[in-house]
Structure formats: C-alpha cells, structure tokens
Amino acid sequence: MRTRFVFQLKNRGAYVPFHHQFILAQTIKGLIMLGKRPEYFQFTEYNFSGLKGQTKISRKGLHFYSSRVTLVFSTSNGEFLKFLLGVLFDQKELVIGNLQLIPESAEPEETVTVGESMRYLCISPLVLVPASFNDESGKRFIQPETDEFSDLLYDNTITRMENSGRFSAEQLASFYKFQLVPDRDYLQRLQASHKKFARIYPLYDSDIKYEVRGYTLPFTLFAPQPVQQFVYENGLGHFTHKGFGMLDVAQASGIKKLESEELNYA
After folding, report:
1. pLDDT tens for each residue of 203-213
2. Whole-number Cα distances in Å, 189 to 52, 149, 178, 195, 250
3. Which residues of 81-97 are buried (b: 16+ CB within 10 A; e: fewer)?
4. Which residues touch 103 (CB under 8 Å, ≥6 apart)?
5. Identical fold at 2-108 and 117-265?
6. Distance CA 37, CA 25 (A)
7. Which CATH number is associated with domain 117-265?
C-alpha cells in the first residue's frame, strides 16, 4: 500500500541535496526508533520516494518554493504503516536538510493493479550490488541489457520475499520467471546525448558512509503477479528501505519527464 505524506513548508526557498535519499532514510529511521517498538527496529520492508514540490535547481541542490511538500511511502505491512504515521504526526516539525516541515496529512494513493507484464519507471535509482566497507564492488557498472542485470535483481527479490515470511517454499520455487527488459530507445537517446542513467550515490548504514551505483531507467518486468506486487509495494533491488528502487507504472509522459531530468541533471 502506498501513502502520500503531505507537509507544510515553513521556509520557502530552503533546499536539500538533489539526491537526498540518505537524509530521508535517517529521518525515517529516527521516527522508528522514537516510536520505541523493538519489533520494528530492524524492519526493512518499506520504500519511499524523494521529496516532491515546486522546485528550482542551484549548485546547493533542490530549492522548494511550494507551500507543501510530499513524500510517497510504501509498504506491504499495514500495522507498520499505522505505527509510523502515529509517530510522524506526534511531531510538531521535522527538519530535513534545510527544510522545516510540519506534518499535515496522509493520503492513500490510488490502488494500481499489477499483472505478469508491467512497464515501470524508477522513481529512485535501482541498486544491483550491495556496498561493503573498503570495497569498490558496489560501484561496478552492469549493462542493463545483460542477463546479469536481471539475475542480480531476481536473486535479491526472492531473498527479500523469503525473509518477509509471507511466502512458502513452494510459492518461492514457483516464482522462477523473472526477466527485466530495459527501454532501449530511452537508453539510446541518453547515449546519443552523452548523458548518464547510472550514477554513484551515497548511503549510510550503522554510521558508515558507503557509495553504490544506482540506475534510473524505464523497463518492462516479466514476473508472476505476487512478485510484481511485492516489488511495486516494497521496491526493487538493494537498500529499498534507504529510499532506493522505488517504482511507478510507466506512461509515455512519465518516461519523457524522466529523460528530461536525466538530461538536465547529468
């Protein structure tokens, strides 16, 4: 289930870094710890977008000029969502980056029906390889057209589904169909413009800073419906609980917008 968190912005013109997922991840983790529910201290079955609103770009990052800022939060666990909302709305104000935000409301997103063939775009970058301390392997580039790209995401998805405890061994064994096919036209247009769809991003875990390679591109995913539902609600790839791998159902206008952002911010 997806929910849109709406905040009032007290200081218009304030900013966050353009890639600010690590700040949001720290904020959400702080809310979880503040809630003092030990069963959620290590909970990772959730996903979230970047902050959205009327913005302008500077060297410092994204400056917000709208009166309200939103964040899309997603999880398959209704009890966890209820818990997090309770803690969130106990706060009179949150400071995220340079933004002073007042929690205002939570609005359920319209339900999306997923099938065995879905065309997605990335709201936040996909991470294929986990990061390790003093190890550069997390930055390795993998061509999206290769089997390795799809296989790494499949292995991670099945592991996460198994760890959720919501699927039997028989069900997991039946989820062998999984193929990710990138949008070649999109990749060719970016390549022709000498722009990037894969970049290095920072994240923090246990107070340690890591760097990982993330991919932002439209693609079609062929997989059983329960797998599609899982990745739509909980994200695709590694570090989804740190704001990576959030998906949205692709439309032509969304792909054009994604391409425009890549061209502008590369």
Report:
1. 888 788 889 99
2. 26, 20, 26, 9, 17
3. bebbbebbeeeeeeebb
4. 5, 6, 7, 88, 89, 91, 94
5. yes
6. 18
7. 3.30.70.1900
208 neighbors 218 (Cβ within 8 angstroms): no
Give the tens place of pLDDT for each residue, 70-126.
999 999 999 999 999 999 999 999 999 999 999 999 999 998 999 999 999 999 999
* The residue count for the chain: 266
CATH for 2-108 (3.30.230.30, 3.40.1280.10, 2.60.40.10, 3.30.70.1890): 3.30.70.1890
Give me the phi and psi of 73, to 5 degrees please: -120, 140
On whether the CB atoms of residues 92 and 164 are closer than 8 A, the answer is no
List the 198-205 sheet strands across, edge first: 126-127, 208-215, 198-205
Does the pLDDT of residue 179 top 90, yes or no?
Answer: yes
> Do the beta carbons of residue 153 and residue 180 sit within 8 Å?
yes
Domain ranges of the chain: 2-108, 117-265
CA pair distance 206, 74, nearest whole angstrom: 23
